[in-house]
Amino acid sequence: MDWSRELGMPSYVIQHRLAYGWDAERALTTPVRSIRNNVKSKLIEYDGKTLSISGWERERGFPRGTIQQRLALDWSVEDAICQPLQRSKPRSRVETADIPSHLTYDGKTMTITEWSEHTGLPRNTLKSRLKNGWDTERALTQPLQSKNTKRS
Question: Is the N or the C terminus of the chain less surrounded, counting Cβ atoms within 10 Å?
Answer without folding.
Answer: C
